Each structure stands twice: as C-alpha cells, then as structure tokens.
Amino acid sequence: MPVITCIDDLKQLYKKRTPKMFYDYCESGSYTEQTFRENTTDFAKIRLRQRVARDLTGRSTAVSMLGNQITMPVALAPVGSTGMQSPDGEIKAARAAAAFGVPFTLSTMSICSIEDVAAHSPTPFWFQLYVMKDEDFVDAIIERARAAKCSALVLTLDLQILGQRHKDLKNGLTSPPKLTLPNMINMATKPQWSMGMLQTPRRTFRNIVGHVKGVTDLADLTKWANEQFDPMLDWGKVRRIRDQWGGKLILKGILDADDARMAADVGADAMVVSNHGGRQLDGALSAIRVLPSIVKAVGDQTEVYMDSGIRSGQDVLKALAMGAKSTFIGRSFIYGLGAMGQAGVTKALEVIQKELDISMALCGVQKAAQISREQVLVPKDFEGDWA
C-alpha cells in the first residue's frame, strides 16, 4: 500500500482504480474548464501569514454548522453518481463522515437511495434536492427525506439547465455504463471495481427508478433526467420548498452578492458559495474570489459556507479567513472513495484535518473558530475591479 500524504496521492490511486468515464465525470468542468481550473489556482494566490512565539497547546479544528459541533470545518458535498465511483459509494462516504464527525450530503442523483443510506448510516445526514418539473416527484422525495430523518435540506439553485461537459458526451456517460467494447475493455483493467459492482444491486439512480411512473430502464431514466431539471425555479418556488420542508434549509450555488441577499431574505439557514465545481457556467469567477463580497452582503443574517476548489487543509484555512463559516469538499473525498473505498474517504478527511491543524498552528491560531482575515495575505486586486 503506498504512503498517502496528500489529496493528490489519493487522486493518482483513484485514476488507476476507477473506470475512465467516472474518473472523467469527476475530474472535469464545463466547456473550456476555465472556472474549473481557477477554483483551485486562485487559492494559490492567497498566502498564509506566519506568526511565531504563540501558545500552540490545546488546538482544536472543531466548529459548528447549523448549531451542531463538528470535528472540523468540512462537510461532504453532494456528488451525483457517487455509487459509480465505488460500489455502494454513498453508504461508504456516509459511514466515513459519521465516524469522523462531519456532515454527509446525499445527492438527488445518487446511486444509493435515501432509504439505502438511512439504513446504513449511524447518524442523520443531509439531503440535496434538485428541483424537477415533476412536482409530484419533488413533493414525494422531500417527504422521503423527512421520513429518513435527514437533518437539513440542501437546495441546489445553479442547475436549472445542464452545462455541457465535453468528456461526458465523448465517453457516453451513463449509470450503469453501457456495455460497449471500449467500456468493457476499460472495466476489465479495474477488477476490484468490477467485482464490487457485480456484487451490489445498487447500479442506477435509485432515488428515481421505482419512484417515477414510466421509468423502468436506462433509456427511460436518461430521457426523464434530461428533460426534468426545472428552468422555472425561482425565489417563489424556493419559498414553497422552504415551507414544505419546514426544517433547516441550505441554499447551494450562490455566486453573486445580489443572489446572496435574496437567499437570506427567503429565510435560508445557510448558503453555499459555489459554482458547482466549475461544471456549470464556464467563465464564472472562482468561488474563493467571490466569497468575501457575499459574506459582506449578508453579514450575520445567515451562515455562509464555501465549496469548489478545496483540495487541502490550507485551502480550508484560507476559505475561513476569507469569511466562510465552514466548507464543503466534493472531489477531494471522491478521490479517496475511488482509491480505497470507505477507508479512502476517512484518509482524505484525516489528511485535510492534519494540514489544517498544522497550518493553523504555524499561523499562530489555536482554534479553527478563531481564524480570520488576520491569518492571510491577499493580493489587493484579488476580488477584481470589474466593470
């Protein structure tokens, strides 16, 4: 077993052990991938401020999210088709998150259903909702999340229509994969993944199949999904879903200060500054660049989290210094999942926590909750002077 010292080590193992179409699904953005790249490269422009001769005993990475204490300021983001990255992937990720003491968020487009994860997760998890045209489906899945005792609803706002991801089209991405000759040849080189998939019944979108009338096979599912994302999702519908859910509500996909004010006004308990990992509007600013303006716009009206681009504990520290109360990771935990299953998700969390703890200490901070702009050096033009 190779020595894992950073998230990139997990990424390299993941690439070796997971079929190409699912690796590409994770490791890609839309169109030119400019935003996908800048989500990570913009973090490198922020520098950490080293401070010395401080008391570094009694350090803690713990913070709170939605009033609950968690081990570190990281939650697992909703990622579609997680169960194609590793057999029963959502269950493995939920278990790893629960054991580590951080939140797990299940995607609407998961391979394991809400009920599958609820039956196997030792703690409540969050559920991410895509709003579909089929209102009966939306109403039913909200009730299913409530029945599963999901402790928060994460409503994604930035996927009313799908951004084009060239690699997915060229690979003919489906879940499960079509048994074409190239796919079978590639899967034959991933024996552990293939054996695991043969042994599980969870190989398609189980939140949808069996819950939507007329969707019985892959062709039906693909057609339904491609037609169902709701282009008429507006703030009125957000309010309706808020009232129907009645519990903690997180709005994900905020990338503009005006939208952040609207999100706060509709009563969101939290919002996630996110560009969907660079998978939707290519050419948009990175999440870390717009984060300060959104924090300034909403003040203490609601909690502000951030995702898109976090690959290390140093990135987490920088996000908190720029105003986020906590962060979400997607690709970072998927790398671990595809590389080593549940143990790989745990390893990804351990790597990030250790990097955060050491970097915090070298910046002279004892507790993650105390991180502020004092811990970073930010270029004067970082947020941009946009006309």
From TrEMBL:
The keyword Heme does not apply. GO terms for molecular function: FMN binding; oxidoreductase activity, acting on CH-OH group of donors. FMN binds at residues 78-80, 107, 128, 130, 156, 252, 274, 307-311, 330-331. GO terms for cellular component: plasma membrane. The active site is at 276 (proton acceptor). It holds the Pfam family FMN_dh. Glyoxylate binds at residues 25, 165, 276, 279. The keyword Oxidoreductase applies. Residues 1-381 form the FMN hydroxy acid dehydrogenase domain. Its cofactor is FMN. Keywords: Flavoprotein, FMN, Oxidoreductase. InterPro entries: Aldolase_TIM, Alpha-hydoxy_acid_DH_FMN, FMN-dep_DH, FMN_HAD, FMN_hydac_DH_AS. PANTHER family: 2-HYDROXYACID OXIDASE 1 (PTHR10578:SF107), S -2-HYDROXY-ACID OXIDASE-RELATED (PTHR10578). This is Alpha-hydroxy-acid oxidizing enzyme. It comes from Cypionkella aquatica.
